[in-house]
Structure of Glycosyltransferase family 4 protein:
Amino acid sequence: MRILHLIKHCDHGHGNVHFAVDLACAQARRGHEVLFASGGGYYAPLLDSEGVRRAEIRQESRLLSVLRNLAALVRLCWRFKPDVIHAHMMSSAVFGYFASKLTGAPLVTTMHNSFDGHSGLMRLGRIVVAVSSAERDFLLTRGFSPDQVVVILNGPNGSPRENFRPTIEPALATPSIATVCGLHQRKGVHDLIAAFAEVLRDFPDWRLNIIGEGPDREKLEALARELGVSQSTHFLGSIFAPKKLLQRSDIFVMASYAEPFGLAIAEARAAGCAIVATDVGGIPELLAYGKAGQLVEPGHPEQIAAALRKLMQDENALRDWRLRSKSGADYFNVDRVAEDYDKVYAKLKRH
C-alpha cells in the first residue's frame, strides 16, 4: 500500500509528530511504500534510515504560500499515487482535504488535540481516528458522525526514536518521582509540585524529576522555590528518549487537566513505574480504569499527595503497583498501532 503522511514538521517535542514518525517507520518496516511530507525537522534522518521517503511540503498561512504548496502537494500525489493520505495536524487536514478532492485519494485524520479550538478541522477526513474511546465519545458530542470516527489506541513503545541519536543522559536522583510532559498549564505540573511539597517533609530522601520543556518552566521553578522544594526538584529539560530515565524511576505522575491519551503514561507503564494520574480523557482507559495505575481528580494536589504517600511509605504497595503497571503494557507498542491502521486503510481502499 502507498501511504502519504502529511504533517507540518518532524521536530522533537510534539506528541503528534512522535506518533506520525513512529507510524511511518513501522509501516515502512511492514513493507508499505511510505512518503512523509512535511517542512522537515529533527527526525528527518531517522525517517531516511527507516526507508521512509520524504518530500518537503510547507504549510504556511500566507495565501500565496498556501496556493504554491497546495499545488506542490497535488503534483506530489499525482506522482506518488497514494492509496491513502493521512493528516496529523489541523493545517495538514486542510491541505490533505483539497489534495484528496483533486486526486481521489481518501483522507484519514488522527485527532491528537481535541481540546484545541480549531480541532474541528480534523472532521475533513473521511475517517477520523480517535486515540481513545473517551475521545470518540467527546467528538460525538461535538457533532462528529458516529460512522466517521473510529478508535485506535496509541502505542509509543518499541519506537525507533528510542535509539536515534543517543545522547548523554543526566544523572537521575533517586528514589524518584518523575513526570514527562510539556511545561504548560494543561499538564498540571504545578499540582504535582504542590503535592510533592506536602509529602517531602516526611520523605526527605525522595526527588522529583521533571522531564520536559515549555513556557511555564520559570513559573514552575519559582513555585518550587516558594514551596521550599527546589533542592529536591530537578528540571531536566527535554530528553529525546526518556525510556532509560523512566526505568530508573519509582513513580510516574501525570497531573493533566485534559489528555486525549497520554503517550508518556504508556512509556512509564512499559518502564515499570507505579503510576498516579488524573481521571481525564483517555487516561483511565490507558490505565485499565484503575487496575494499572491510581486515578485522582484533576486540580486536586492533595489527592496526588495521598496516593504518593501510600506508595512512598509501603515498599510492598510500591512493588505491587509497579507490577500492575507493567502487566499488559506490551499492548501499547508501535507495531500493534500500525496493524490497526492497516485495517482502517484497507477498508477505505476497498470502498
Notes: The chain has 13 helices and 13 strands. Residues 163-331 form a domain with the Rossmann fold fold (CATH 3.40.50.2000).
